[in-house]
Amino acid sequence: MTRISFLHNRGLLGIIIAVAALLAAGGAWYYYSRVLPAQASPAKETIRTTRVRRGDLVITASGTGTLIPSAEVDLGFSSGGTLAEVAVKVGDRVEAGAVLARLDDTDARAEVAQAEINLRLAELDLAKLTREPDVAELAAAQASLADAQATLDDLTTPPTTEELAAARDNLLSAQKALESLLAGPTQEEIRIAKADLQTAEIDLQEAQAAYDKVASRPGVSATSEAMELWRASTAYEKAKATYEQTIAGPTEEEIAAARAAVAEAQTQLETLERGPDPQELAAAQAKVAQAQAELDALLAGASSEELEAAQLAVEQARLTLAAAQAQLEGTVLKAPFAGVVTAVEAQPGENVGTGTIITLADLDHPLIELHLDETDLDKVAVGYEVEVVFDALPDKTFHGHVVQVSPTLVEVDGVATVQALAALDEERGNNPRFLPAGLNASVDVIAGRAENALLVPVEALREFAPGQYAVFVMVDGQLQMRPVEVGLMDVTSAQILSGLEQGDEVSTGIVATE
Questions:
Q1: Which H or E run contains 298?
Q2: How far apart are CA 164 and CA 324, in angstroms?
Q3: What are the pLDDT digits (tens) for 154-195?
Q4: Alpha-carbon distance 52 to 35, whole Å?
Q5: How many whole angstroms separate alpha carbon 371 and alpha carbon 65?
Q6: How far apart are CA 326 and CA 108, in angstroms?
């Protein structure tokens, strides 16, 4: 049933050559020159030889297989009902998402419509309540009333002597600040800024010198010198910016801001001295009245508990609608993938439950479920080639490759077997799409293949160590032992990877002749 394959280690080639030389020089000479002539035999003994040839060597493991779908699923409805339509029949090809069957959806549609009405009613109830304030709205209304009342109190309360004095001081301070800006920096300010910059520059130079002394140390960035250098650099940049700003004088924006501060202080002082304007006072009073009215309206609204209940009612209505829509969608049975209908087990008008009514299989990419004898476990692996001949198509060979090997042995007819799956390769001329599932086949797994290889009979090999081989080569009428590297090997032939050339004459043993 099977053929055998070996892989060999090249690691001890030097030692092998040395051993082979000794054996060739001593053992072969002794055996063929002394031992054979000394044996008394009525028959002549002849050395049998053959030539190294080129050919193909294929190692296979044979088994049986069955064509199965790459995917197969039993389909049914999520809930029972009356079957209104079966849109497919056995043998139909369908695309993913295609409708396969429908239940009577009259009740499901009515439930969706009622759920939509209930949701709308709950939303209207909530809308009415949300026009009333929540806690945040109440706090905002109360704050607005407090601000309006404070503004009115400020207008109706005469300024105190202290407030007038503070307003005058504020105006005077603003005017002095403006005059100082317009006059520009004093010589003293420039001198101080320059001195600060020079001091910062000296500190930076000293910190840099200290850092340079330890710069080559590992982890220098975490040292105190690195931290001091960073601090000195920051201080220098700040002092430099201050000096440049001082000698540059005020910007147009600073002068404009100072003028605005003077104007604002002047207005505040005049407002305090003049007292409230009648129109301003009336506006403040109206604002207080409006804020009070808004707060009273909010206080008369719904409570937070009522609002929460309404919101929960809306959420519950939404969940009910979603469930009704899912129930309606469940009345339609759709194909989860493209495939072929292999079974239909119900007809329109029948009451069905949640069991299987349609079976769908992917036959566009069928698989071969194959079984090999357990002794062939080492002859099958993912990626190995397979050759398949179906019993129904004995004149055509399909090609493929192993895609899965079962991690456990499977018992078939009381015999433990290795189970594997193989995919058929369409690009090699196969057309497996129209093959019916269940076809039986003979399968050969290609465990090894050597094309146009140097071949010798296995009888020519002499194994002098595990996995290490030599052959006797006929040279000028004398046998010489030569180590060889062996590749694939079956029961009759062995592949020679190195050590021989095509046409070399090798010994396959000794035969007795009359």
A1: helix 278-299
A2: 74
A3: 778 888 888 889 989 998 999 988 888 887 888 888 899 899
A4: 28
A5: 6
A6: 9
